[in-house]
Each structure stands twice: as structure tokens, then as C-alpha cells.
Amino acid sequence: MNTHLPSHLVVGNTISWTTSDGSVSSPRQPPHVGPIPVLDGQGTSRHMEEILPGTERYQSWLAIVGTVVAREMLGTTKNDGPYYMVDFPEGYSLYYRFTKYPQASGSKPRRDQYLWGAKNIVFRSPNEFTPHALWLMKGARADDPCQCIYCTDRVKPSQIDINKEFKLPGIRSHRDKHHYK
């Protein structure tokens, strides 16, 4: 196995973090956390609720990220089964944002998920977070910059390009996005 991680960070199919860029002393939180919605001037209500460890959505994020980290850093394959991150990096938390639009708008209520923790960054999916996670697992070095869509200095890649580069689930072709067959 082509390991780039100290062996004490991998126990079975669970991987611990090498570092974090989240703040432990004052973790970032989204606005409007709690069960009471906040109404805006257009009649749209929003509120955020933390997604707790052990829930299906929480575990799904840890599995998607962990499996890619294992493949990229340990050389695992699909036959090795899923890998899981032990948790999110210190100072990170996963939230649902519930949005309810005025009835007249005809829009359906939404439940989106966001990972908060990194300074000035909110990740909307495990795929968005995975390149950042790989950078953290490599030590978050300044001489090896993060390649996520929020941190990179190169021309901003689309998430589709990142999905393809890191072999992430989801859309991997711009043609797929537009439903060409």
C-alpha cells in the first residue's frame, strides 16, 4: 500500500485528521442557528440546525471524504470498501439550512447542507470539501496550496472539473450537466 499517512492515523477503515484550519477556541457558526425561522423582507423564512454526529447525512459526508482520502493517500481501491473520517476537522460543524418561500412564489421549501469551519469558506457538499480535506491531510502547507474551488489561485475550476480530477461522485462532464446524451 502506498501510504502517505502515519499509521497511527488509520485504524481499520477510519482515518483521523492530521491538521485543521478551523478555530477551536471560537468556531465559525452560520447566522440564524436554532429552530425559530427568521423572516426576511420578501416573506422568505430561513433557519439553520446543526446536523449531529451519527446521523445518516453526517456519516455520508464522512464516508465520501474518507473514501477519497484513502484512495488518494493510501492507494486503496473500491474493493477495500468505504473509509470514513473519524469526524470533521476540529472547529468544523455541519448544518442544514431550511428555507421556506412565500406561498405565492410557487417555490418548494429547501433543505440544504453546509459545512462551516474554515475561515471565510462554507462548503456546500462533500465534493466541494474533499480537495480541501486532502490539503488538510497533507499538512495544510503554504508551499502546496489547496486546490478546492474557494482556495485555489489558479483560474477558478468548476466543481465538475474538480469531480473529474479527484474521481468524485456526481457530474464529471459539462455535457452531463446539460443532459446531453
UniProtKB/TrEMBL annotation:
Residues 20-40 are annotated as: Disordered. Residues 83-151 form the Cryptic loci regulator 2 N-terminal domain. One of its GO terms (cellular component) is rDNA heterochromatin. InterPro entries: Clr2, Clr2_N. Pfam families: Clr2_transil. Transmembrane segments: none annotated. GO terms for biological process: silent mating-type cassette heterochromatin formation. PANTHER family: CRYPTIC LOCI REGULATOR 2 (PTHR38046). This is Cryptic loci regulator 2 N-terminal domain-containing protein. It comes from Ceratobasidium theobromae.
